[in-house]
Amino acid sequence: MLSYESPASRVRVRARGARLFMLIVGMTAFVLGAGWLVIPILVDDGTFAGYGLMGSPVAPGMDNRWQYAAELSIYLGVFLLMQWLFLKPRGSWRLSLSISGRPLVRAALAAGFVGMLVSAGLVASVLEMGQHWEGAIRRFGLQGCLGAMGVLWLFWGAVIHLYWRKQDTQTGMGRVVRALLCGTILEVLVAAPAQAMRPSKYNCYCEKGSYTGLVFGCTAIVWLFGPVVFLMFLRERRRLERRG
Q: Phi/psi class of residue 225: alpha, beta or left (left: φ > 0; alpha: ψ in -120 to 50)?
C-alpha cells in the first residue's frame, strides 16, 4: 500500500513527538527531583540527613528539618524565578514564543545562575578529589561559600550578556543553552566518580564536596529542560513562518 502522508507531514509528526517527549521527561525529572528534595521534611525519624540539599552550602541545617524546609523553599523559588526570567519575552509578564529582539540582561542573569551552579559544583568536586573540601569549608565558612557563589553568578551573567548582546533571541539562547548543557554534563562526569570514592573520613556521604557537585549538576540539568523544549517550539514556529 502506498502512503499518502507527505514527507513534510511525517517530519512534523516526529518533531511534535520529540517535543512532547522532552516535555514529559522534563516534567517527570522535575517532579522526581522535587520529591527527592523534600524527603528530609517528610521523614521524622532522625535519619533524614543525607538526602536532598542536606550538606551542600545552600542547606547546611542538617539537624533541623524546618530550617531545611526554609532553605529548600528559597532554593526552589530561585530556581523557578530564574527559569521564568530566562524564557520571559520582552515587555511582557506572560511567556510566549518571541522570535524577534535580543535577549535581555535579566535572561543573561538567569543563565548565569546555571553557570554558577556548574562552576561551583565543579570546584567542590575537584576540591573533594584533592581532599581539600573539608579544609576549605572550615577556612572560609558558609558565608564565604555563598559569597563566592554570588560572585560566580554575576561573573557568568556578565559573560553571557556580553556574548549574546548582538545576536537574535533564538541564536543567542540556543548557543548558551548548548554550552551550559555541555558544561553540566562535564561537571556531573567529574562529580560522580569523586562521590563514588570511599568516604573514609565523613559521617555522611552528603558532607563530601562531590555531593554538592551532584546536587548542583542535577539542578542544572533539570533547569535546562525548560529552555530546550522552548527552543524546540521556537525553531518549529520560525520554520513554519518561513514556509508561510
A: alpha
